[in-house]
Design goal:
The protein starts with 10 loop residues before the first strand and ends in a 9-residue tail after the last helix. It has one domain. The longest helix has 14 residues. It is 46% helix and 8% strand. By secondary structure, it is mainly α.
Length: 143
């Protein structure tokens, strides 16, 4: 349904257990605004927010969407994504990922991953310096 918002004047139907429900895509697009609608295809590709293929570990669909909806800077970055073959050196996408994981003050994904690692595994006291490392599970660090 996310991609249909890009296409004007559509009504989308969903069929479930013999019940047909029409969703007014125009109304949703009007509510979201042009800037958010233009950013949705790249946002969907970046986050992988399908039911089974989410790119961001342990994050629901709305968690990545809220920062996009609130920030014009993120909307513009996702609108430009895929517009050219060269990559920009801007770190707006990294700032976005940091915000999803709750590290708004950071702008580097590597620094955010390190902070998450420290939160999970730093010792609670000086007596157990290596206690958290014994049960280290690398899969808990976000990609």
């Amino acid at each position: 349904m996310m991609v249909l918002i890009e296409v004007p004047h559509n009504k989308s139907g969903t069929l479930s257990k013999n019940n047909l429900r029409l969703v007014d895509i125009n109304k949703i697009a009007f509510t979201l605004g042009t800037s958010v609608c233009n950013a949705l295809p790249a946002f969907h590709a970046f986050t992988g927010c399908d039911d089974h293929t989410a790119s961001f570990a342990r994050k629901a669909e709305l968690t990545p969407f809220k920062p996009l909806e609130k920030s014009k800077k993120f909307q513009e970055a996702f609108s430009r994504m895929g517009g050219s073959e060269t990559l920009s050196h801007e770190t707006i996408e990294e700032e976005y990922v940091c915000e999803i994981y709750g590290n708004r003050k950071l702008s580097s994904v590597n620094k955010a991953r390190f902070e998450i690692f420290l939160d999970c595994y730093k010792p609670k006291s000086n007596q157990s310096l290596f206690g958290g490392i014994k049960n280290f599970e690398a899969s808990r660090i976000p990609p």
